[in-house]
Amino acid sequence: MISAGKKLLNLMSVLFLMSCVGSSVTTTTDSPPAPGVARTLAEQRVTAISDVVYDLFFHIPADNTEAVTGTLAATFELSDDSQPLVLDFRVPADHVLAVTLNGAPVTHDVVNDHVVIPATALVPGSHTLGVEFKSADTALNRRDDFMYALFVPDRASTAFPVFEQPDIKARYRLQLSIPEHWQALSNGAEVSRHADPDRATMDRLQFAETLPISSYLFAFAAGDLQTETAVRDGRTLTLYHRETDPERLARNRDAIFDLHATAIRWLEEYTDIDYPFGKFDFFAVPAFQFGGMEHPGAIWYRAETLFLDPSASRTQELSRASLIAHETAHMWFGDLVTMRWFNDVWMKEVFANFMAAKIAGPAFPELDLDLRFFQAHHPAAYAVDRTDGANPVRQQLDNLRDAGSLYGAIIYQKAPVVMQQLETLLGEDTLRNGLRQYLAQYAFANAGWPDLISVLDSMSNEDLTTWSQVWVNEPGRPRIQARWRNDAITVTQRDDESDRSLLWQQPVALALGWEGQVKEYTVQLRDRTATLNLKDVEGNGPPDFVLAGADGVGYARFELDNSSRQFLLGHVHELESALQRAVVWQHLWEDVLENTLSPMAFYQTLLTAVRVEQEPLLTQQVLGLLRGVWWRYLPAEDRADHVAELEQTLWQALARASSAGQKGAYFNTLVDITGTASGLAELEAIWRMTRDVDGLPLQEQQYINLAEALALRGVAGAEEILDRQQARISNPDRLNRFRFVRPALSQDADQRNARFLSFANLENRRQESWVLDATRLIHHPLRAGSAVALIRPALTLLEEIQQTGDIFFPLRWLNATLDGHSSVAAWTIVEQFLEERRDMQPKLRAKLLQAADGLQRAAR
């Protein structure tokens, strides 16, 4: 038996030898791999490497300033030894502590974010590559008393050496060393836990081996976590959380479990495949930077979306149900079958959103699901497709390091519309049968859009290749007009890009109104024009209005004629169909953006709708459009003239509302727009709890929102309000967030500017959702004048933010910076930056063009 001292001495000797070999300057290849994962590298590796198993160990100290360290043993089959072996590891070279191949030290280089083993050290066959390393914190999201890994799309390589590409799936065997009072979860079930023999006050946890998954789907979390467990349909579900309000937890607990069970049951039936990944856990992450992330067996959610307040509207409840259904659908669409390369990342998102719409709807029979689909998808997709930065659904990707730039409304919102068009074209049964065959054929493997089209082509007589070229491979949307002439309606489409002349084949629904009667028709638009003869239709001459896209399915810039626009401005609230009202609101908003309708005329029509609209989904849409036109398109002097009337109208609507959810929607809008002294006094009385809002129980977050709104408007005693609110906050995560954003609420512009400029330091950007909250406050329209000088620094930081931030952060950073601005001065700064930086990475430039579109329109 060897003493502990001798063991340590022997280990140090081996590691010293390994580090000496590893630090050699031998050049393993004349052309070292480029930074990131080039597609050429990925294509070479996937043909040479198979049957990968990662044995991973991480030591996670309680002190988040101490480095996370670990070891890797990667076992794999190598079929081609003509090329160097390249693992991806995006850390400083000194984070690679030792490297072995099949148990012996091996010469290696650490270059351009890779660990490279020379081809001369390789032979075909089975190998085990060992690495001792220090992790970067980039993707580990370490907080004071918890952490969570988030590796999508290409950040696993910041934590450990890995073949980071979606088509090299692997099995993971994970061990963690964590503080003894912490809990942990990962993709596999926890199979053992005991005191760590090498570290006092630490426990060693072993997790079960996973099924084959892509590296972006591997995950683990640890910290001071609580758990709730439930059994549904014979399956045990576990919720990990940090919620400190027992009533808030109890109020939402059963619904969260039930929604997951419903989604699993529906997907098993639709796909004809049982849930494929064994255990099913999820973690409600405070201030999570996404809505959710679909790690099999360990889904991450934004806690604030799961734990709803009593005043939550049915729309918010449906949003939660849709989110849960979306992440659950990923277990089949994205996790079981994964794209070969991230240019097809949209495929997993389109099916997750498309299935979520089918799954969540039946639990809300009182809501118009067609209306909900339209509202959830078309406006957000149009917001990108109308810009100079529009991108296609399926995009080119040459290097995985740029994969984050692919994400956005086109893959999340437009793609489900495209899939709805495809389902209409093929039929619901054909699409379902094709998806079943596709999932069964590629289970635990990889497939791309051409593979799915091949399956569907075999079941249909439609020309799906041509259809796909227009809808999937090209950006933008058609312009469609429907015009009455000589007892006929002619529907015409054109492409804004004159050099393309694309045709978007789709059915176009028409609604025609005569003296309060609305008649509906459908035209199959398979060419540039289609004509509908209405000679035999009863009516008194030309209709009062012609509404194209009336069913919320068609996708286009549907242009109203002048007489239809004027009629609908005065009568939109009289349309019987809620869906048609929603479509009209979208058409009118597009008219405002294209300067064919004045913002004030639109505002007045919206104000009428606030008084009369009863449909909850329409109320949300109207209030959202109201806030949009109020802050960006109405001049400050117009807002000053109309704010008292708007406040009064909203208070009256709140009093009339029959549900807490509806009252909450009006109240939140009041908090956003109130500007009169009397209105602010009312809000302050509510914040001080000397006045209640009848029928609306307020929760901690709503009081926080009130305090921030009052401080933003510079009410007397603003600092005292913030002090008292800070003392009131009981939840530690909400308290930390409040402390972080508080400088952004200062009455001193220098303090606000200093908070914003501090974000140039990466360490101050780690908590991205807090950074965005602070940025929105600093650039609020009420403070846009003092913040305009911060636009250029924000744009200058953009490329670094893309390199260091999570996938949604660059666009959200731009939106948080620019959304509060509408001045010519602000647009001039953006315009000059675009002119000076013509060499900017094209996809990032497109994000800036998308984010700046509203500013450009407001400043014209």
What structural class do you assign from the helix and strand content?
Answer: alpha+beta
CATH class wording of the domain at 4-221: Mainly Beta
Helical stretch tally:
29
If you compute it from the alpha carbons, what radius of gyration comes out, rounded to the nearest whole angstrom? 28 Å
Overall shape: globular
Q: Which superfamily, in CATH terms, is the homologous superfamily of the domain at 4-221?
A: tricorn interacting facor f3 domain
Question: Helical residue percent?
Answer: 40-55%
| CATH architecture type of the domain at 4-221 | Sandwich
Write down the CATH topology of the domain at 4-221.
Answer: Immunoglobulin-like
Please describe what this structure looks like.
This protein is of the alpha+beta class. Among the domains are: 4-221, Immunoglobulin-like; 225-332, Orthogonal Bundle (Neutral Protease, domain 2); 762-860. Helices cover 43% and strands 19% of the residues. It is globular and about 90 Å long. Residues 1-29 have low confidence and may be disordered.
Brief digest:
It is built from 29 helices and 28 strands.
Helices and strands, with pairings:
Blueprint: H1 4-22, H2 39-48, E1 49-59, E2 69-78, E3 85-88, E4 96-101, E5 104-105, E6 109-111, E7 114-117, E8 125-134, E9 146-148, E10 170-179, E11 183-186, E12 190-195, E13 202-207, E14 220-223, E15 226-232, E16 235-241, H3 246-271, E17 280-285, E18 292-293, E19 298-302, H4 303-306, H5 314-329, E20 337-338, H6 345-360, H7 369-385, H8 409-426, H9 428-441, E21 445-446, H10 449-457, H11 464-471, E22 478-485, E23 488-495, E24 506-514, E25 517-525, E26 529-533, E27 545-548, E28 557-559, H12 562-571, H13 578-593, H14 599-612, H15 616-633, H16 636-656, H17 660-673, H18 677-687, H19 700-712, H20 718-728, H21 732-741, H22 749-757, H23 768-778, H24 784-787, H25 791-796, H26 798-804, H27 809-818, H28 824-836, H29 842-859
Parallel strand pairs: 1-10, 16-17, 17-19, 20-21, 22-28
Antiparallel strand pairs: 1-2, 2-8, 3-7, 4-5, 4-8, 6-7, 9-14, 10-13, 11-14, 12-13, 15-16, 18-19, 22-23, 23-26, 24-25, 24-27
